[in-house]
Amino acid sequence: MDHLDAFLTLSPIEKEELTKRASLKKYKRRQFLLSEGEVCQNYAFVSKGCFKTYKVDEAGKEHNIMFAVENQWAADIGSFHSEKPSALYIEAVEPSEVLLLHKKDMIYFYTHFYSFNRTFRVMVEDNFVDLQNRLIQMISTTAEERYFDFVKRFPDLDNRLSNAQIASYIGITPEFLSRIRNGLANRP
Amino acid sequence: MDHLDAFLTLSPIEKEELTKRASLKKYKRRQFLLSEGEVCQNYAFVSKGCFKTYKVDEAGKEHNIMFAVENQWAADIGSFHSEKPSALYIEAVEPSEVLLLHKKDMIYFYTHFYSFNRTFRVMVEDNFVDLQNRLIQMISTTAEERYFDFVKRFPDLDNRLSNAQIASYIGITPEFLSRIRNGLANRP
DNA sequence: CGTCTATTTGAATGTACTCAAAAGCGGTGG
DNA sequence: CCACCGCTTTTGAGTACATTCAAATAGACG
Description:
The structure is a homodimer.
Chain A: H1 2-5, H2 12-21, E1 23-27, E2 32-34, E3 42-48, E4 50-56, E5 62-69, E6 73-74, H3 77-82, E7 89-92, E8 96-102, H4 103-112, H5 114-140, H6 143-153, H7 155-160, H8 163-170, H9 174-181
Antiparallel strand pairs in A: 1-8, 2-7, 3-6, 3-8, 4-5, 4-7
The structure holds a DNA duplex.
């Protein structure tokens, strides 16, 4: 439970409550935390490993929307709050461990602890701003700029993820990412 | 104040309170509701006209993030909640009228009316989901698909906005939008 | 009617994609 | 220990989608 400290500042009582209610779960590589069509029932706090959230388009291609590593949250916020089926998949990229906070427990915490309320509201807002920036970046920059920005923002992920995962996140093909990495020297 | 009914379901008492606190303001075409660097202090409910929210990139180009017409809200949600300077502009595209709800009044309503709380939380979440879908669309579809989707989703806006505004929203040049509109027949 | 802005069209160019094949790399089993 | 399998990355050639810049045309408004 120590990992949560990195994210939430909790009193001993709050922490005890949280420990009682959250459930630890392990995921193998490729295992799903959420599949398209399901309603997202949990916020998952990643204590070990890495998850990717992605959408599969009509052509069957995967598009990574975000990654969640240690001390970050994974959830389909839209589906969670609206209680409508998700259009997204959340899948373990590595063997991982998460703390699952079920909706009913979230409501419990929301109503009992002000700090909890605020923490999660801020998280949604931050996510919102990130998304907005990413959209603008997608519109206004080249693949190369996006990749260099990715490396700058997530140096750890650059080593940790495959070419294909990163390419999907920045919206290009793995082949083209390979060329970018090799200095675009060998451009066709 | 009648316009608000379209969006919020309010009791007579709530409506009265809202009327007392919200301030009506008119904007000329090209006038700014918010400029880059300012902290967003208001949620603006558009009762007449249309606003565009956009970001100016390093190259000086404008990128429309969203439009807000009658019965919709305009605000930089990120800046409003974080109280940090905005990176966005919100500008009247037409002569417009809005109801301004200042942050302090929002807090008043949040604490006094449950429905208000919920309404705005849902709005942020809906905005979030829309953004997510737009990002995916931007990555996975062609300019032509995006334009046709835009027309389908906002048939009114297609007539109401200039080529350049729509092009900026779907992330292409006005010239290319013109070609799309004319059936791509006269492709270079 | 003239001026200003928005739209259309053309030609050349750039960015990124597709498809295909070759090379690299990590693990597993003989 | 190395040979082979499966997967990822690299490289090449051809192509598609969209851009830039420039010029021509069309609309809107005083």
